[in-house]
Every structure is written in structure tokens, then in C-alpha cells.
Amino acid sequence: MKTQLTLNPVFGTLKPSSTLYINEAVNEMWRQGEQVFHMGFGESRFNVFDGLKESLAIHADKKSYLPARGLPELTDAVANYYSVKLEQPFSPKQVLVGPGSKSIIYGLQMVLGADVFLPSPSWVSYAPQAQLLGNKHFYIPSSVENDYKLDLSELDQLVKNSDNPSKLLIINTPNNPTGQMMSSAELTQLAAYCRDNNIVVLSDEIYFEVTQPGQKHQSISKYYPEGSIVCGGLSKHFSIGGWRLGIGLFPQNEFGEALMSKMVTFASETWSGVAAPIQYAALTAYSLEPEVEQYVADCRTIHSIRTKYCHEALSKLGVSCSRAEGAFYIAVNFDQFRPGLNALDIVTSSDLAKHLLDHYRIATLPGLDFGLPEDVMTLRLSTSYLDMEQVNDSQNIFDLFKTGISAAEFMSVTNHPVTNAALEAFEKFISSL
User: Fold this and answer.
1) What are the residues facing 382 on neighbouring strands?
2) Could you tell me which of 126, 231, 87, 107 has the C-alpha nearest to residue 173?
3) What is the helix (H) or strand (E) element at residue 265, kind and residue range?
4) How many angstroms separate the first and last alpha carbons of the chain?
5) Mean pLDDT in residue range 236-244
6) What is the tens place of the pLDDT at every residue in 19-31?
7) CA–centroid distance for 322 within its chain
8) Do the beta carbons of residue 41 and residue 22 sit within 8 Å?
9) Contact partners, residue 333, CB within 8 Å, separation at least 6
10) Quick one: CA torsion of 130, 185, 100, 258, rounded to 10 degrees?
């Protein structure tokens, strides 16, 4: 008797995360000795802060299960940390600790059972998570000419067409893939709209400590505290994505308490609790100690210098670039080169990404993966991997920065050969159109 394998049909419409896929593909090409400019994966490459490594080693003997909501000392530290950083009060009772913010976002979508509204472009995993859960999701149309800004009139049209009484808007600032940030004016207006229309906002603020000089992060939770959930974690500004520690901050009201209760149930039946040694080590990350804060500031400055350099170089080539305000991403648009692209049989952003990888060894991600129409010639570029491909590269870059070197010399061909070679490859591509 043969056993017939039956799979959930939802997986027939999904594929692995494009960010993880491109990273695995590039690593395989590297193993085969090929030169590839890896601008497809957004992983901060700096070494683990010494204080975190020491704390992890000290607490390696912590082997017992911790509360599903998180280590009490850690929820205390996280509440204090965000109270200072976001300039508004948070209580430990509002804090949930999870194995990366991705798991928390998934759990929230499951618990709310809402129709999900996503600005376009948005991070690649929001929509697939909704699909896995059988929740409807809607991309809010945007335009390159308007810097991909969230259009409230477009959102309102989608909201009016939704018959689900539960509605969830997911925003991400600083944004992946554009690197742009929402201003206080934009957030104030958005908060008023969501309040009037009973829309819950999930604000993904994982990059809030990775900003350009002069840019101050603003959280919608300051303007809409009763209906906003903030998600964050340590992966970006502490360069420890593999540690898998994320946090959620819930409203301090009856709705928030009910949501937290359901999320704790979800956690207890799925991840049980984040690894104990990781949670104890995270106490150092959320300590606000000067040495820790200086490390974060140094990494932030290095990211900003590198991203600004690439942004300026690409802009000089005539490529339309999103504003480089935060994170380490740039959304680059090639619509103005459409005649030349069409001559090469490039008619979608996926075609464009494939052409750049096949002919110029530039790994990128197509805008289609982030919810943009396929005929919009937008790609997402990440600057975080360039010249930090090997384990020791990031420490060399960090040490060079700490010498006080000028930004111009720091980004020279001598000190950033791969970055400059990638930009030269882009120049050759543009010249071919």
C-alpha cells in the first residue's frame, strides 16, 4: 500500500523568503570561486560587541525554561530602554520577548485574524505570513515620483472595500527596502486616520537605531499609543541576527492586555521561550551603558557613510534613488532607462535583477518581491555586505573607522575595493543601455 502525501495547498503559492534565497545563492557562487557583489541581503556584518559575548559566556549555564513572555529582568530592561529611546513611558507588562521580531509579527497576524494593509514597497515576509494564515492582504499603491510615500486616499479606498471588522496596517520605519523614514507630520496624520477607522497599527522599528546623521526616528506609538504595537530587536544595530531575539511593545490598555494574553498563549504553544543564555546576554544590550551605546553609534555612523557613498554614486549615474535616511538600503529605479532595458528583453524588475546577476555579478532583489507592480523597474540594494564578505573584513573596517579617517579616504578604492568595483559594474550596465 502506498501512502499518499497530502500537503497544505497554501504552500503551492509560496516560495522561500527571497532575502534568504539570494543570500544562499550568492554564498554558493562564492564557494565556487565566483566574484559576486552581494547587495541582495541586509545583514549587518559587524562583530559581536565584546560585552555581549562575555555575557553570553557567563550565562551559558542557564538551561531552564524561562517565562513565555520573557525573562522578567529583561522585560524590565526593555521597558526602560524604549522609554528612554522613544521618549514615552513603557511598562514591563507591555513587553513580549520572542525568537526574532519575525515570529512576533506572525503571531500577531494570527491572533488578530485581520485584513492586512501593506504600504508598497514593504518587507518581503509580511504578505507571505498573511497568506500562510489565510488572511487577506492588500498592497497600498504608491508611486516612484512621490518617493513611495503612503497615500492615505489609497489606503482609505482599500479599507472601505474590506468587510473584515479587524484591520491591521503594518508600517516599517526606517523602511526596508527604501531606507526612508516617516516624519512626525506623516505619523500624526496616519494616527488620526487609524484612530478614526479603528485600525490596529503594527510598527516594525527594527532599524530604529540605524539612521543617517540628522535623522531622528519617530514612532507612531507616540501619536497612537492605544492602537499601536511596536516590534524591534537586536539583529540590526547589534549585528546579531542569528541570535534570534525580538521584542514587542503592546498598548497599555484593555486591548493591549487582551492581545498580550493571546500572544503569551501563542508563544507557549510555539516557541515556549527564547533561549535562556541569549535572554540573559541581552540584558547588556538593553542596559544603556555608555560603552554599549558608543558601539551602536559607531556602527550606525559606518553604515551611514557607506550607504550615503553608494547613494551619491548611483545618483550621479542618473539612477533614481530613494532618500537615504535610515537602515542600509536604497531603492533604485530604472524606469527612465526603459527603452534600453526593453531592447535587452528586460520588462520586469525580476528580469532586471536576473540580468544584473548573470551579466554583472550584482546580486539585488526585485521590487516585485516587496509588493511593487512587476513592470516598475525598482530594485532593492543593500550596502551592508560589501567589503565585509569575510569574517575578519568587518573588524578591519571598524578598526579603520576608529582611527578617525575622513569619510572620503574611508570609502576610497584602497579601503573599499569591492564597493567601488560594484559601482563600476553599475556604471558599465548604465552605459550599455
Assistant:
1) 329
2) 231
3) helix 254-269
4) 60
5) 94
6) 777 788 888 888 8
7) 16
8) yes
9) 144, 319, 320, 321, 376, 377, 378, 379
10) -70
Q: Which residue has 534570534 as its cell numbers?
A: 244
What is the distance, to the nearest Å, from the Cα of residue 79 to the centroid of all Cα atoms in its chain? 22
Instruction: Find the helix packing angle between 417-432 and 290-316, rounded to 10°.
Output: 30
CA–CA dist 416, 232 (Å, integer): 30
Helices 417-432 and 349-360 sit at what angle, rounded to 10 degrees? Answer: 120
Give CA–CA dist 51/288, Å, rounded. Answer: 12
Cβ count near 5 (within 10 Å): 5
Report yes or no: 331 and 178 within 8 Å, Cβ to Cβ.
yes
pLDDT at 228 over 90: yes
The whole-angstrom separation of Cα 108 and Cα 98 is 12
Rg of the chain taking only CA atoms, in angstroms: 22
pLDDT band, very low/low/confident/very high, at 273 (cuts 50, 70, 90): very high
pLDDT at residue number 146: 93
Over residues 274-329, the pLDDT tens digits come to 999 999 999 999 999 999 999 999 999 999 999 999 999 999 999 999 998 999 99
Q: How far apart, in Å, are the Cα atoms of 86 and each of 127, 145, 294, 386?
A: 27, 31, 18, 31
CA 290 to chain centre: 26
Q: How confident is the model at residue 261 (pLDDT cuts 50, 70, 90)?
A: very high
The model's confidence at residue 3, banded by pLDDT at 50, 70 and 90, is low
**Residue 370 DSSP one-character state:** G
Write the pLDDT tens digit of every residue in 381-390.
999 999 999 8
Q: List the Cα angle 345/351/356 in 5-degree steps.
A: 100
d(CA 403, CA 158): 52
Query: Count H helices, E strands: the chain?
Result: 15, 13
Q: What is the dihedral of CA 187, 189, 192, 195, to 10 degrees?
A: -50
C-alpha cell belonging to residue 44: 549587518
Give the pLDDT confidence of 131-177 residue by residue, as tens digits: 999 999 999 999 999 999 999 999 999 999 999 999 999 999 999 99
